[in-house]
Specification:
Blueprint: E1 3-5, E2 11-13, H1 18-36, E3 41-42, E4 47-48, E5 51-57, H2 64-80, E6 84-90, H3 91-100, H4 104-111, E7 118-124, E8 127-130, E9 135-136, E10 144-154, E11 163-172, H5 175-191, H6 193-199, E12 203-204, E13 215-216, H7 218-237, E14 241-242, E15 248-250, H8 251-257, H9 259-263, E16 271-273, E17 276-280, H10 285-293, E18 304-313, E19 329-339, H11 344-362, E20 367-373, H12 386-403, E21 407-411, E22 420-426, E23 432-441, H13 443-447, E24 452-453, E25 459-460, E26 463-472, H14 473-484, E27 497-501, H15 507-519, E28 524-526, H16 533-542, E29 547-551, H17 553-558, E30 561-565, E31 570-574, H18 576-586
Parallel strand pairs: 14-18, 20-21, 27-28, 27-29
Antiparallel strand pairs: 1-2, 1-9, 3-5, 4-5, 5-11, 6-7, 7-8, 10-11, 12-13, 15-17, 16-17, 18-19, 19-26, 20-22, 22-23, 23-26, 24-25, 29-30, 30-31
Helix pairs in contact: 1-2, 3-4, 6-14
């Protein structure tokens, strides 16, 4: 069994821990860097879920070619089979030790620690690093590793600090594990929604518009429009009433709701117009509270379900925005359910059933339910009302148990006003993505003094259920693009069929087929260019068109169609009636 050494210099045996192996790899990489560039200053170098990295301060700009040099030097260190040992120093001794090595970033880290702190170091050959460990006992334990890329990273994640160079790598116990990881990594690159978004002309960004503000092109707009209609139709069928509310509001609205104290740092700056102070909204709950409060309600009126495809704005750092995944303006598939206490269970159940119905339509199967609770010790992040929290969390837990839903609990993931159910979907690139959410809220009805007249003729306080099924439409688009690798199912494909006449003689026939398909509601285009048919087919395949309809002299003469499918299947001598029947069958949501 492999042997580890901890910060007490004790050697012990254990099943191989990838985190320990990768942490050891980060030290070996740092040692190699110091050998190649002695002036390099080390910052931090942790193990992470996918491997490890090290941040360094170096005047020389590293390139991809330099990674090969670093790997070669790492192999030499591994071959030297240096013993890895730990020792401890007092805070002052540690500061002096790191100063002697000109490691300014390490000194800063140590100075931030308490006076009585005793710090551990790990030494291998001439290289010593500040570290809590544990590590492998000898450098030869690292056998399989790979360095990937160099990026920029601000010291301590603060954009006001110096930009350092971050080198990423990974390590595995076996060559087979590394090869699988590299294969998965390449697959993830091919599925990257930013790459596919550009190739399939789904969306674009431009510096003149701004960071985190994507623009949907016709193809992407078509997909999003279909998604929006799909979810609104589902909600309307369940008794939701949809509204339109403004994308900005008076600051006082968010002070009333309590969002100002918790979210103002994530909001865009206040705009002062005359005597008003307005701000772009980061969420829709306060608007919907006022919609409910607009008229008097009886207990017979409840539940009242208010839905909206609403545009929200959150100030994300320019370095954090990413395609459609993380944006500064988003469209939320939002709704708020105003219910009597005796209706909580039934309405919550209906939300869960709606989530499951949507996931079935999209073919999602790899997901988990997470009960997100508050951190009881964090009085700043969460509204301070223990009784309210205990009641809300207990009710939500009881509902999930009664529904027979498998779930796990996560402390510190709740909204500031109440616990919630999050659905974590495993994406095609291996990420856990929060898509749907359902939250129980006793606080906002209190802050907005919402009421309904009960059966006893007296005013009562409703409970609010916040819920989002597709979540952010932008993030859902990102998830879906990567899930299907750009090959959208027929019902969602921006262009469902492309007609490919072999020569000019078939263009008129192609246009007649196009008119029939358009009249039947299908999204279809004709490629009437002078290119050869092989080129037209390849081009349609690159665009991931589900149906390619090839029309030559024979097809025109017999009033038939030859079909080339996106998956490579072929069908010849197909009548227009047979084509329409096949399109209707394959346009169903489950296809």
């Amino acid at each position: 069994m492999p042997k580890f050494v901890n910060n007490n210099n004790e050697v012990f045996e254990s099943e191989l821990d990838l985190q320990v192996l990768r942490h050891t790899a980060s030290h070996i990489m740092a040692q190699a860097i110091k050998r190649l560039w002695p002036d390099a200053k080390l910052a931090i170098g942790p193990a992470i879920d996918t491997g490890f990295y090290y941040d360094i301060d170096l005047d020389y700009r590293l390139s991809e070619n330099d990674l090969v040099k670093i790997e070669e030097e790492m192999k030499k260190i591994i071959k030297e089979n240096l013993k890895i040992e730990s020792f401890k120093l007092s805070r002052d001794e540690a500061i002096n030790f790191m100063k002697s090595k000109n490691e300014d970033y390490k000194v800063e880290l140590i100075e931030d620690l308490g006076e009585d702190e005793e710090l551990s170091f790990f030494k291998q050959g001439e290289f010593t690093d500040l570290c809590v460990g544990p590590h492998m006992t000898y450098t030869k334990a690292l056998k399989v590793f790979k360095l990937f890329n160099v990026t920029g990273a601000y010291w301590r994640g603060d954009e006001h600090n110096k930009m350092l160079q971050r080198i990423y790598g990974t390590a595995f116990a076996t060559k087979e594990d590394l090869e699988k990881y590299l294969s998965d990594l390449e697959e993830a690159k091919q599925r990257d929604h930013r790459k596919l978004g550009k190739e399939l002309e789904l969306f674009m960004t431009h510096e003149l518009v701004g960071s985190g503000l994507p623009m949907y092109l016709p193809n992407g707009s078509t997909i999003r429009r279909i998604l929006e209609r799909y979810i609104v139709d589902k909600e309307v069928a369940m008794g939701y009433n949809h509204v339109y509310t403004p994308s900005l509001a008076n600051v006082e609205l968010y002070k009333t709701s309590g969002h100002w104290d918790h979210y103002k740092d994530d909001m865009f700056p206040v705009m002062e117009i005359g005597s008003e102070k307005l701000v772009l909204r980061p969420m829709n709950c306060p608007h919907h509270m006022l919609v409910y409060k607009n008229k008097l309600h009886s207990y017979r009126d409840l539940p009242i379900r208010i839905g909206e495809l609403a545009h929200d704005f959150r100030y994300e750092d320019s370095g954090a925005v990413c395609g459609l995944e993380r944006v500064r303006e988003m469209c939320q598939n939002d709704a708020h359910l105003f219910v009597r206490p005796d209706q909580i269970k039934e309405e919550f159940k209906k939300v869960v059933e709606l989530i499951l119905s949507v996931y079935k339509d999209f073919g999602f199967t790899d997901y988990k339910f997470r009960l997100s609770l508050r951190d009881k010790n964090n009085k700043e992040k969460y509204f301070d009302d223990d009784e309210m929290w205990e009641r809300a969390e207990s009710q939500l837990r009881e509902i999930l148990v009664e529904l027979g839903v498998d779930f796990y609990e996560a402390e510190g993931e709740a909204a500031f006003y109440g616990p919630k159910l999050d659905v974590q979907i495993k994406s095609a690139v291996g990420h856990d993505v929060s898509v749907s959410t359902c939250q129980l809220d006793f606080l906002l009805p209190e802050r907005f003094e919402l009421e309904y007249i009960g059966e006893d003729g007296k005013p009562h306080r409703p409970v609010v259920i916040h819920r989002a099924i597709l979540g952010s439409m932008d993030r859902f688009m990102c998830f879906l693009i990567e899930e299907v690798k750009g090959a959208f199912p027929l019902w969602l494909a921006p262009v469902q069929a492309k007609i490919l006449p072999i020569s000019e003689n078939e263009v008129e026939y192609a246009n007649s087929i196009r008119e029939i398909l358009l009249q039947d509601g299908y999204r279809v285009e004709t490629d009437s260019s002078n290119e050869k048919i092989g080129y037209k087919i390849r081009n349609a395949q690159l665009q991931k068109i589900p149906y390619m309809l090839v029309l030559g002299a024979k097809e025109k003469e017999e009033n038939k169609i030859s079909i080339r499918m996106r998956n490579g299947d072929k069908k010849d001598n197909v009548s227009i009636e047979e084509l329409l029947e096949e399109l209707r069958e394959n346009s169903r949501l489950s296809k």
